Amino acid sequence: MKLQGRAHLFGDDISTDHIAPGRYYHLRSNLPEFAKHVLEDADPAFPSRVRPGDFVVAGSNFGLGSSREHAPTIMKMAGVSAVLAKSFARIFFRNAINIGMPAVVCDTEGISAGDQLELDLAAGRVRNLTQGTELDVVPLPAVMLRLLEDGGLVEHVKKHGRLAVGGEASD
Amino acid sequence: MGQTLAEKIFSSHAGKRVRAGEIVVAEVDIALIQDGTGPLAVRQMTAMGFSKPRRPESTLIFLDHALPSPRRELATDHVFLREFARSSGAVIREHGYGICHQVVAEDWAEPGQIVVGADSHTCMAGALGAFGTGMGSTDVAVAMALGNNWFRVPETFRVIVRGRFQRAVGPKDLMLHVIGQLGADGATYKALEFGGEGLRDMPMPGRLTLANMAVESGAKAGLFPSDEVTREFMERHGRGGAWRPLAPDPDATYARTMTIELGELEPTIACPHRVDNAAVIGKVKGTAVQQVFVGSCTNGRLEDLAEVLAILEGRQLNPKTRLFVQPASRRVWLEADSLGYLARFVRAGAVVLPPGCGPCAGIHLGILGDGEVCVSTTNRNFEGRMGNPQSKVYLASPAVAAATAVAGVIADPREVDQ
């Protein structure tokens, strides 16, 4: 799977309160409307600037805080195709994979706003087409690759009727 | 080789002896959802092709985040969850019953269980020796539908506590200190396991506060051994028969060990806008505060309310500061009422709110104004957390909250005569 998109930059410790603010709690069953406010507490212009296929590029501990799966879900609905960060908070990371939005750990330091990026998950590589550089990504655990390949957790369970994972070493 | 608490609990649920780092499919004892994450979990379970949970009797639905409903959309989410409970046989806890994690501690969690919840503070069940962990709606939907889920058995950081707290310093100060030391991602993917002789004198309410905030260091769980304190708590809640002892093996392997002398701790605050932005009170004393909030799953228990009243008694609220008090459950409310606490709060000028999550999660009942500052006994102070990105939240203990409500500025409870 290869994905291409423009980079939108964010800093460290972007919480799920930044991504999906609690004041829009009433929109949790109206996700298209909620998606119009995605990440606005980290960058008020982001909802109007994001285009289908774009990448969110961040520092460390992206997605900390609440377990709200609405956070990765409205990012995906707003058009974000993948998130690259130096590290992720645990629940967000798992949620993103579960809904089929790749969350990829790599050194995001050299990426500039607007850079055109290409993510090749199978090869474990990000190409920065604007700068002509390449970045290695930390490989996803086998269990998560399997979920992504099946199209997310719901599709995985539909396909197998159970969790067809387990027994793998984690690294 | 010995096992940590996490390894013991996963071994008993995976049907084989497992070690940190392994991926296992484990049976789940309790799955919980709430009114914010529940509708999505139910829809995802339906999308997987399941109309009913595998074990409805231990599938818990809490209407605790938005009550009484401030919006028609949220009231309609409640209608949806009630209908699901009716058609599936899942257990529903209505408005006013209490915050999910508090009710799970009072009525449900048992030592050695695995509890998953579509709420990040599900780790609070760790205070009773249960592996409680927060997950997203789809993961909890899997646990509801199949009765299990996959987990990576976490490595464990051991936190050893020794000695006794000084006056007006307690578990909240300890946890804000620990998170400050670890950092907001210092324990990501790990379990925290508390131990040491300092635990013997630490009653269950304090343990619940510590386990609750484990996730604020990135941890997957915050675990305690099950001991006499656990037994006493479960007996008091009519569940003594479900108690059993649980302890890590003496030769268990830990990824990291930190030791804390309780007597050296000072009142500790988490400054805006990060939970790991810890400061001892001397650094922030004197900051003007417009709102003080005492409540939440972190610090909304009877003992927390008593600690606030001990400082408030015979004093007035500062006229520039308002105080909101929210008992964490109906049980806490009734106990506080029978002891006369609620009337004392009201007479002191405080507003008592119904048990729930509204103020802490920025949904309703206490949204801050632009430029306002709140001292809160809750667990998060991210930008906008309490409903307004133009406000600031300082996290603190009930004692600091009380001293602040009287002074109108962040105040040191050790300087208040009791």
What is the topological layout?
The complex is a heterodimer of chains A (171) and B (418).
Chain A: E1 2-9, H1 16-19, H2 31-34, H3 46-49, E2 55-58, H4 70-77, E3 82-85, H5 90-98, E4 103-105, E5 116-120, E6 125-128, E7 133-136, H6 142-149, H7 153-160
Chain B: H1 5-14, E1 23-27, E2 30-34, H2 38-47, E3 59-62, H3 72-88, E4 91-93, H4 100-108, E5 114-117, E6 131-134, H5 137-146, E7 148-152, E8 156-162, H6 171-182, E9 191-195, H7 204-212, E10 221-223, H8 228-236, E11 256-261, E12 268-270, E13 278-280, E14 291-295, H9 296-299, H10 302-312, E15 322-326, H11 330-338, H12 341-347, E16 351-352, E17 373-376, E18 392-395, H13 398-407
Parallel strand pairs in B: 2-3, 2-5, 3-4, 5-6, 8-9, 8-11, 9-10, 14-15, 14-17, 15-16, 17-18
Antiparallel strand pairs in B: 1-7, 12-13
Please tell me about this protein's structure:
The complex is a heterodimer of chains A (171) and B (418). Chain A is of the alpha/beta class and 171 residues long. Chain A has 2 domains: 2-139, Aconitase, domain 4, CATH 3.20.19.10; 141-171, no CATH class. Chain A has 7 helices and 7 strands. Chain A has helices at 16-19, 31-34, 46-49, 70-77, 90-98, 142-149, 153-160; strands spanning 2-9, 55-58, 82-85, 103-105, 116-120, 125-128, 133-136. The model of chain A has no long low-confidence stretch (mean pLDDT 94). In chain B, the strands form 5 sheets. Chain B has a 5-stranded parallel β-sheet with strand order 4-3-2-5-6. Chain B has a 5-stranded parallel β-sheet with strand order 16-15-14-17-18. A 4-stranded parallel β-sheet of chain B has the order 10-9-8-11, covered by helices on one side. Helices cover 30% and strands 18% of the residues of chain B. Chain B has helices at 5-14, 38-47, 72-88, 100-108, 137-146, 171-182, 204-212, 228-236, 296-299, 302-312, 330-338, 341-347, 398-407, and strands spanning 23-27, 30-34, 59-62, 91-93, 114-117, 131-134, 148-152, 156-162, 191-195, 221-223, 256-261, 268-270, 278-280, 291-295, 322-326, 351-352, 373-376, 392-395. In chain B, helix 2 crosses helix 5 and helix 6 (171-182) packs parallel to helix 7 (204-212). Chain B is globular, with a radius of gyration of 20 Å. Chain B has 2 domains: 7-262, Aconitase, domain 3; 268-415, Aconitase, domain 3 (2-Layer Sandwich). Chain B has 418 residues and is α/β, with parallel strands linked by helices. At the A-B interface, helix 5 and helix 7 of A face strand 1, helix 2, helix 3, helix 5 and strand 7 of B.
